[in-house]
Design a protein that fits this description.
Its main location: membrane. It holds the Pfam family PhoLip_ATPase_C. Its EC number is 7.6.2.1. It is an enzyme of class 7 (translocase). It is found in: Membrane. There is one protein chain. This protein is an alpha/beta fold and about 290 residues long. The chain folds into 2 domains: about 180 residues, Rossmann fold; about 70 residues. Helix content is about 55%, strand content about 15%. The protein is built from 12 helices and 7 strands. Strand 6, helix 9 and strand 7 form a beta-alpha-beta unit. The longest helix is centred in the C-terminal third of the chain and has 38 residues. The radius of gyration is 27 Å and the shape is elongated. About 20% of the residues are buried.
Length: about 290
Amino acid sequence: MGGLRQVQISAACVAVEQQMRLLGCSGVEDKLQDCVPETISFFLKSGVTIWMLTGDKRETAVNIAQAANLVGSGDKVIHLDAGGDVQQCLQDLSHTQCIIGNMPHSKDGKASVVIVVDGHTFATIKAAHWKQFFSIATCIKSAVCCRLTPLQKASIVEMFQQGNQNICMGIGDGANDVSMIQEARVGVGIMGLEGSQAELASDFAIPRFKHLIRLCAVHGRFACVRNAYLIQHSFYKNNVFASMQAFFAFYNGFTGQTIFDDWIIASMNLLFTQLPPFLAGIIEKD
């Protein structure tokens, strides 16, 4: 159905656009923000799988993906355009799996393949061939999903999070990205001209897309290191405190008498062990 529809649209355009005199033309360009290609390249080189989820039409979405370096010059682009045809959709998925299987894979098991799928085809895949589509999704470096509804964007995020327990980050700047941002484990809203719904629904808000590198690679790394240190410190101080009580029990005949006064036990975390985790949570770096 999808291929027949495109043929009919092309035939209608040919029938209408005849004996016309061109008086002028205009173009509208939605320019990318600064350093978007560099940001995308940074995460792709880091082994991050990037999916572009948009409501734009197929041609526009592919052009934006190419301009943003999401689709490289050496990548194999596969279009899934079966529409509502379940059998054709199954054939396209099987053919895609064969192509991926015959291509070289990187160290993280990803092939240099980018699939392009529209919302109508995705609805058919979700209803009939969900597992096969997910197996493909885990073997490719990136994908472009066009003509998606907000709920379909959230469904793709849910697919990755439930399929293999991956941590997904949803990034958006408009109201149609809110459901995706809320579904993701980590939601990032970009402040823009499309309202503040995305940033209000997100966990983190950044002014520009390029700041995503610093958010993940700098602040995200520091947060991971600091949380790990605080967890280790918490286990250490509590084990030391409990061990002294346990050893003291051998000397008092297991009467239940404590080695510390009650006020020391009650205020240990507040007065005596507050400074190390406080400083580590602020200045600890690797």
